[in-house]
Amino acid sequence: MKKILFILSLLIITILVLLPKILSSPFGTKLVIAYLEKKTDKKISIERLDLHWMGPQNISYIVITSPDYSLSIKRLTTPSSLWNFLVKNMENIHAEASIEGGTLSLSSPKLGVFDFFGSITARGDEYVAHIEGKAIQEQQQGTFSLQAQLHNDHYSFDLIAKNFPTSFLDPLYPTAPPSNILGIVADITCSGTLQKNEGPIELSIQAERASLQLSLQKNNHLITLRAPLKASLMITPSLLQTLRSSIPGFSSLDILSKTPIHLWIDKEGFLLPWDHKKNITIKKGIIDFGQMTTSSQIALLSLFHVLKFSIHSSLDRTEMWFSPLEFQMQQENISIGRVDILVDRSLHICSWGNIDWKNDKIQMTLGINADTLQHAFGITMLSNDYVMKVPITGKIGKIKIDSTTAAAKIAALKASSSQKGIAGILGLFVQKLDNQDDVPSPKRPFPWEN
Fold first, then answer.
1. Which of 20, 61, 64, 394 can bridge 47 by disulfide, Cβ–Cβ 3.0-4.6 Å?
2. How far is residue 270's CA from residue 283's CA, in Å, rounded to a whole number?
3. pLDDT tens digit sequence for 52-80
4. Domain spans of the chain, in order of start
């Protein structure tokens, strides 16, 4: 009996001593692959295992395949002992690993490849990673570098991507693909240091069609700005289609950029509740739409046709040039300051008012300036700062301009210009009734005056 026990003990010890060699053999490698495939539900292949009790461990030519991607690594090396992996729980593992010749090929929705190398270190509940490489999509090739550290509830990261193909980001936001917003490639930097999910985050994006400078502070349930938010955007045909399909009320939107739209939001008074993102508060923001073109059939331009004034636009689009406008936002209620607009390089109008985004309600005013009334309708004897007010109501993306009121006011003002009889008196009376006290002052010089 003792001899049997001795032989069994000797056999077990021999197997344990030879276990790394057994697992490194073709037969052992197949066992390891079968175990990993069962645990991950992925198809895995390993060309060669070179395992040692005291280290190092070398795995050559690993390929992991799923319906969405294929990951291959030329060599994965760690100096850690095999005992470290077999006996200890994952949270107690102390290990370092270097990656050589990694390639991640995406099969959906667009083909693309990441070539990378780097290192990953695990020390109990602390993880440190440094990965860098190339991102390749069709004819575009960019570089990226990621450093990250995680320890309990503290984590930090630093990402730098240059000439990065934006189509890699599209699966993250399928309803609003970033490639439609940014263009083909972008330079992206993002960094942050968070303790208990609180801390600063910096994000910078520079691309052909858009840019963003964002410095925020994430607190427990609130996001604030550390510096003014700055952004720019070009509305292209592809982005316009995205806006129409993804934002309620924008299905009939028809504007295209000739120059970038610029956005600036003051850090003071900016509040974004993490759990109620619609309740955003913006104390002061500025938007400059720049120069845009729009369909000649939109309600604003149709007003001039009703008033029997012709817009001299080429083809079917009309140019509009905007002055910067200030706005405030509180729980989906947007207060918009005066914006002056030059239509077709000849007609000067303005607008201001409020938008109730939550209830899809617009209460604004269209102002037809004195210079336009004189140029378009031959109305004289008006002060230079006079603005004829026309109500704008309706829903977002479907506004209604009271053209009947506009036509009546213009008829009366034209009569007052003649200063004859009852019509002239009526026109003067209309001017008096059209109180100018609530008309915001213009902010000159206008862009087209430069």
1. 61
2. 6
3. 888 788 889 889 888 878 888 888 888 87
4. 289-450
